[in-house]
Amino acid sequence: MDKIIGRELEYEKITTYMNSSRAEFVAIYGRRRVGKTFLVRKYFNDKFDFSTTGVIDGTREEELSVFYNSLCDYGYIGKQPQNWIEAFYALYNLLKAKKRRKRCVVFIDELPCFDTQHSGFVRAFGHFWNNYASKLKNIFLVVCGSATSWIVRNIIDNRGGLHNRITHEMHIHPFNLHETELFFKAHRARWTQLAITQMYMALGGVPYYLEMIDFGRSVAENIDALFFAPDAELRNEYDRLFKSLYRHPDKYMEIIALLSENKSGLTRKEISDRLKVNSGSHLSNMLEDLVNCDFLRRYSNGTKRNSCIYQVVDFYTLFYHQFCKKKSSDKQLWQHSINTPRQNTWYGLAFERICLCHVWQILYALHLDTVRTEYFSWRSSTTPDKAQIDLVIDRVGGQTCICEIKYSQGEYTITNTEETKIRNRIASYNAEMNPKNGVIGVLITTFGLANKQATDSIQHIVTLNKLFE
Questions:
Q1: Helix, strand, or coil here: 25?
Q2: What is the reported pTM?
Q3: Cα(175)–Cα(35) distance, rounded to whole angstroms?
């Protein structure tokens, strides 16, 4: 069995679960296109004791028919079940006939699709696990689906028959830069780390999107082909993405659109006020759903008041809202935008997001990975439009790192104006937060600092190659 790129930890976890001596129930969730199904099928080499896949937008009758056909494919002989209680009892009878000396692997993909209105699917599924499957010590049940909110609420956080019944949950995240570089190397692509980073800014680490890259073309040529060419593959992906994840996608898309326009993110109250929706549990649930799908990150600004801020971190989504939401007739928009202020500004903002998604690599570069730290983005409560810091790393019992994030295609140069801004931000932070052990300045940039002698505000520099570790 060959391992796939970038999922070594997931492979190790599944192997550990497989080697246990008890019945296992594993729920896998994550963003659409992130490779959940591919991971499972690759690990087990498509050899299951039972496997089935729900039908997107299928009726109750269609879902039952698909399940029955899958039963027959694996040797079931009997009449077609009329409800889910009968369907799962048929599955139990099929499984208990399997040899007990080896793992009996069951894979149910797109599980949420089976839960049609008033079908009783979740109750029947819980009954199946509690009364039948969990008593078979060799059973290894894996469920997954793109509708992450359904998986989390109905399986992982179920308050009924499945409460605390799963043995493990696995959140499959997009690739980080290191894993993306491994992906490129596996395809024998001789791209620089800067080029990989620029491609990452538009696609993120979503394997399905990365597979679309033509490694013989430049970054700009690829972006044009994927987003702006006639019939570009990713131009219409946005609507499909949200419609596949949520049964009522419009409200989720409104939240994403709002946050895409606000670089530093917004609090729940700010989102509620601007969208004119109630800030109660329904909004909280939608925000949680978007966090679980890796569209948003939730962070603290380092204070107790308004401490929970939501910010878009899905790179494809950000790129779509910035450049694709308004249709362009230019088939080579990205190539025609090279070195324009609009494109350079975008690269700068996207690089900030990349750094925020690679905090552990930054901690490692600063030798803070083995000490207790808290990290957050900060904005002044007195002058929020003027004093904002993208990343603050607060070392418990040590100095606080104030991180400046700057994108450049060469060594970065700090001008006198920029030096003044850095000092003012640090001064604002000191005045409001009063760090006990003082602060040090950290510059996170692509290729280092050209004029180190021009600044006394920066003590440490983290370069792009460190984010790939």
A1: strand
A2: 0.91
A3: 10
